[in-house]
Amino acid sequence: MEETARPAMTEGRAQATVYRRVTADVLATLERPGLGWFALMALVLTGLAFGALSWIYQIKNGLGVAGYVPPVFWAVYITDFVFWVGIAHSGTLISAILFLFRAQFRTAVYRISETMTVFAVMTAGLFPLIHLGRVWYFYYLIPYPNERLLWPNFRSPLVWDFFAISTYFTISSLFLYIGLIPDIAAARDRAIEGTWRHRLYSMLSLGWQGTDRQWRHYNRAYLFLAGLATPLVLSVHSVVSWDFAMAIVPGWHSTIFAPYFVAGAIFSGVAMVITLLVPLRKVFHLEDYIESYHLDRLARLLLLTSLIVFYAYAVEGFIAWYSGSEFERAVFWDRATGQYAWAAWIMYSCNCFIPMALWSSRVRTSWFWMFIISIFVNIGMWFERFVIIIQSLAHEFEPYMWDYYRPTWVEWGITVGSFSWFFMWFLIFIKVMPSMAIAELKELLPPKLKRQKEKLEGRA
Amino acid sequence: MSAEVLDTGVRGAFLTVEDTARAVNALEEEGFTPEDITVFSPIPTPHLEERLTRRTSPVRWFTLIGGLLGTCTGLALTLWTFHAWPLQVGGKSTSSLPVAVVIMFELTVLLGGLFTLAAVLIFSRLPTLGRNPGYHPRFSDDLFGVYVHTADDDARSRARRVLDGVGALEVEHATA
Question: How far apart (Å, rounded) are the C-alpha atoms in residues B105 and B128?
Fold first, then answer.
C-alpha cells in the first residue's frame, strides 16, 4: 500500500510540538524510580552507613584511629576535601563561564554539572569537620570574635578557605536554584494537584509564571550571577592551593600551585560530569538531547586540562631541579622513585598518559571509552592530592622525621561514605528536579530536535 | 465585590514569539499601553521584554551595590581585626593589605550574589501566592500568551478583535 505523506505543519505548530516533547522528555525523568534506582540507592546507603559508623568510631576513640604518623597529620581527609572541592569546579565552569562564552553545547549538560557542584561542595564541607578531633567545637571554624574579642587570624590561608568555600557553596547553590525556577514551574503545571510534588514545586517555583517582567529581571540576574561566579571558579581552588603553597613544606611551597590546582580541578570535574552523564543518558533515554557532539566537546576540555596538568607536573619538576633547592629536589626525586612512587605513577598514568587517547576523535565520541577514561581521571586526580599532601609531608626537611603513612580502615570507610553521600544526593535530585534545563533546551534546540522540527515543517 | 475590583481581561494564546510580537504591536496601535499588556512565555524573549518595558532591568544596581558593600565589609573586617589585636611579626606591618584582598574578593562575590537574588525576587514580585488571571499552564510548555488587563467591556472587545486579527490560537475572557 502506498504510504500517504503527512501534511507539513506550520512553523509554529512544529515548534509547539517540539516544545511539548522537550517538557515531556525532561519531566519523564521524574517518574517513579525503577528497581535499578532502588538498588543503587541501597548500595549508596550501605556505603553511607559504613562511613557514618567509621566516623562515629573515630569520634569515640579519637583521631588516633586514623593512620597519622608524625609528620603526616594531613592525610586522606584533606585529600578527600581537595578532591571534592576540585570536582565542584567544572560545574560552575560549564554553567557560568561557558554561558558567558555562549558555548551552546553547555545547554544539555549544565544542570547536571551544577548539581554535581553543589553536592560536591556539600561533601567537601564535611571534611574540615571529620578532620577535627573534637567535632563539637566545629564552630571555632567560623570567623567570629571569641570571649576575649580575638578574631581568627586573617593571615591564615585556612580562614581564606572558609570564606572561599562558603561563598562558593552559596553562589553555586543560588545559581542552580535560579536556573531551576522556570523548570520547576513547568513541573508544577504538569504535576497532579494535591500531590506532594505539586505542593513542593508550587513552593519552590515561587509562583513563577514566565511573564515578560519576570523573564527580564531573571535574565539580568542570571547574567550577573554568571559574571560573579566566573572569577569565583578560578579563585576557589587558588585559595585551596594556598592552604599548601603558603606553607614552607617542600613540594607545596610553589607559585605555580594556584593555576595548577585550578586546571586540575576543572580536569577532575569534567571527568566526573562524564562519569555521571554516560549512565544518566542511557537510563533516561536522553540520546536525542545528549549526543556524541556534547561528549566530544567535554572530551576536548578534558584533553586541554590534562595537557595543562601534564605541563604543571613537568614545570614543578623542572623548577625543583633549576631552583637549586636541595629539599625541593629531594622531594621530587622521592616522588618519582621513593616510597610513594606507586601513588605518583598512578597519578602520572591516569592524568597524563591515559588522557592522550583523547587525541583520537573515535575515542572522544565513544560513550564506552569516555566513561572508562573519566573513571581513570577520577582515580588519578584523587591520587594527585594524595601524592601532593602525603608524600610531601612524609618527606620534609629532616631525614629522621621521614615516615610512611598508611590509611586505616576508618579513613577508607569515611572516604567510601563521602562518595556514597555525594551519590545519594545526586540520586535523589534526578528523581525530584528536572535534570536538564527545559527552558534553555527550547531556546536552543539540540541538533536532533532541530531536525525533527524541520521534518515536521516539511523542510527536511 | 464590584466587577471593577476584579483583575479581569482578555487572553490570547500564540504559537510563536513572532506572532506574540505582532499581537503586542497591534494592541499598542489600538491604544493599549505596555502597562495593560502582559506576555507569558516558556522561554526568555529578550526583544519583547525590552519592547514592553523600554528600560534596562534595575537588577544591575543591586548587584553593584551588593558587590561594593562586600568589598568594603571585607576591607573593614580585616583591617579592624588587625588593629583590634595588633600582632607584630618580624617587623612586618600589622595591616596586611594583600591578605585583605582575598576576603574582600570573596565578600564582593557573596554579597553581590545575594543582592542579585534579592533584586530578582523584589522586581519580579516573587514569591507570590496569587496567579495572574492571564496565565495558563501551557505557557510553561508550548504556547506564548498575551494578556490584556482591562475591566472595560468596550476595551475587552477591542482587544479580543485585535488578538483574533493577528491569528491567536484561542482568545478568551480571563478573570481572577
Answer: 34
Rounded CA separation B8/B153 (Å): 10
Q: Which of B40, B59, B114 sits opposite A211 (nearest CB)?
A: B40
Q: Which three cell numbers stand for residue A429?
A: 535530585
Question: Within 10 A of B133 (CB to CB), how many other CB atoms are there?
Answer: 18
What is the Cα–Cα distance from A26 to A35, expressed in whole angstroms? 20
Q: Report the DSSP beta bridge partners of residue B174.
A: B9
Rounded to a whole number of angstroms, the distance from the CA of B54 to the nearest CA of chain A is: 11
CB A439 within 8 A of CB A182: yes
Percent above pLDDT 90 for chain A:
72
In Å, how far are A299, A348, A363 from A356, measured between CA atoms? Answer: 11, 12, 10
Nearest CA in chain A to B58: A217
Q: Quick check: B45 and A208 CB within 8 A?
A: no
Which pTM value belongs to this model?
0.92
pLDDT, one tens digit per residue, over A319-368 is 999 988 899 999 999 999 999 999 999 999 999 999 999 999 999 999 99
Find, in chain A, the residue whose alpha carbon is nearest to that of B137: A189
Label residue A405 left, alpha or beta by phi (over 0 means left) and psi (-120 to 50 means alpha): beta
The ipTM (two decimal places) reads 0.91
Question: What is the C-alpha to C-alpha distance for residues A357 and A139, in angstroms, rounded to an integer?
Answer: 47
Residues of chain B contacting residue A186, judged by C-beta atoms under 8 Å apart: 42, 140-141
Does position B54 have pLDDT exceeding 80, yes or no? no
Residue pLDDT, tens place only, A259-286? 999 999 999 999 999 999 999 999 888 8
Please give the Cα distance from A367 to A283 (Å, whole number): 13
pLDDT tens-digit map of A2-44 = 444 556 678 788 888 999 999 999 999 999 998 999 999 999 9
Asked if residue A86 lies in contact with residue A381, where contact means CB atoms within 8 angstroms, the answer is yes
DSSP designation for A33: P
Nearest residue to A421 via CA among A20, A33, A52: A52
